[in-house]
UniProtKB/TrEMBL annotation:
Belongs to the aspartate/ornithine carbamoyltransferase superfamily. OTCase family. Residues 159-314 form the Aspartate/ornithine carbamoyltransferase Asp/Orn-binding domain. Its main location: cytoplasm. The gene is argF. Residues 13-153 form the Aspartate/ornithine carbamoyltransferase carbamoyl-P binding domain. The keyword Cytoplasm applies. This is Ornithine carbamoyltransferase. InterPro entries: Asp/Orn_carbamoyltranf_P-bd, Asp/Orn_carbamoylTrfase, Asp/Orn_carbamoylTrfase_sf, Asp_carbamoyltransf_Asp/Orn-bd, Orn/put_carbamltrans, OTCase_ArgI. The keyword Signal does not apply. It comes from Treponema rectale. Carbamoyl phosphate binds at S62, T63, R64, T65, Q89, R113, H140, P141, T142, Q143, C276, L277, R304. The lineage of its organism: Bacteria, Pseudomonadati, Spirochaetota, Spirochaetia, Spirochaetales. Its EC number is 2.1.3.3. It is found in: Cytoplasm. GO terms for biological process: citrulline biosynthetic process; L-arginine biosynthetic process via ornithine. L-ornithine binds at N172, D235, S239, M240.
Length: 316
């Protein structure tokens, strides 16, 4: 076993979204993700989190995020502590601020997966330790780093690629993809009904980044927007907390399903399919596409672990 030191210029920093991170800084973490993936596949065992602890706060259920944080931290010799809303008083009997101050005195870092972006920001403000956003209704930064890693593995480069998100253009995945694509010079489009177009605030945030990197941002309800896409990306039509809207969303989003015809509409035989999972096959994507040779969803899922390990090594 190796307990080598991992020198990072970002020690003590939080990851709440990618807005305040420069492309070069994100690339630094991405490079480390490729490194730890190689080490994992080589069977190397390291103990870089020995003596460290992380509080994993989950308001929302999770497979990939929880598994990634727990296994990545534990394999490195650290001790992850899972906390659901049934286990702690966060925002209930105890304020988020007070919870942050308590956890900040007991843990090396905090991960938060929940509803309000405000809560993860309060944890970072008051805890005094690194806080990582494992998902909020506004952003999903750890997921999109894994997405970028998967794209780079597939195409060898990022700048100049074209990614099209199909479905609910307002959700945290569409917002987060727009942001990270704008930083990396990836042309980003959204194929969505007008009723589910992204809000002006996120477009305003991303536009200067896209201008600087040379990326384009296109939002349309016309199928022609997928033409030339190197990747079609989708997410569930009904997010956690919106279950009552299932029938309405299904009817509205049916024309935006990723199926054989939509893949063909890109005009490229090399187009890949990505999904942050879990997927409802038969709704946002057909089983045919999900199980096809174009699908990279399980490479993408594995990369959650490697990118999350790299993020934790960088911040903790």
């Amino acid at each position: 076993m190796k307990a080598e030191k991992f020198k990072s210029p970002f020690k003590g920093r939080s990851l709440l979204n990618w807005i305040d991170w420069k492309r070069e800084e994100i690339e630094w973490i991405l490079d480390k993700a490729f490194l730890v993936k190689k080490q994992s596949h080589n069977g190397e065992v390291h103990q870089r989190f020995l003596g460290k602890t992380i509080a994993l706060i989950f308001e929302k259920r999770s497979t990939r995020t929880r598994s990634s944080f727990e296994t990545a931290f534990g394999e490195e010799g650290g001790h992850p502590v899972f906390m659901s809303t049934d286990d702690i008083q966060l925002g209930g009997k105890e304020s988020v601020e007070d919870t942050a101050r308590v956890l900040g005195r007991m843990f090396s870092a905090i991960e938060f997966r929940g509803f309000k972006q405000e809560h993860v920001e309060l944890l970072a403000k008051h805890s005094g330790i690194p806080v990582i956003n494992g998902l909020t209704d506004s952003f999903h930064p750890t997921q999109v780093l894994a997405d970028i890693m998967t794209l780079k593995e597939q195409f060898g480069t990022l700048k100049g690629l074209s990614v099209c998100f199909c479905g609910d253009g307002r959700n945290n995945m569409a917002r987060s993809l727009m942001l990270i694509c704008a930083k990396f010079g990836i042309n980003f489009s959204i194929f969505a009904p007008k009723e589910l177009s992204p809000d002006e605030e996120i477009i305003k945030i991303c536009t200067p980044f896209a201008k600087e990197s040379g990326a384009s941002i296109t939002i349309s309800d016309e199928i022609s927007v997928v033409k030339g896409a190197d990747c079609l990306y989708t997410d569930v039509w009904v997010s956690m907390g919106e279950e009552t809207l299932k029938d309405e969303r299904t009817k509205l989003l049916q024309p935006y399903q990723v199926n054989r015809e939509l893949m063909a509409a890109t005009g490229k035989s090399s187009t890949i399919f990505l999904h942050c999972l879990p997927a409802v096959k038969g709704q946002e994507v057909t089983e045919e596409v999900f199980e096809s040779n174009a699908s990279r969803v399980f490479d993408q899922a594995e990369n959650r672990k490697h990118t999350i390990k790299a993020i934790m090594l960088a911040l903790i």
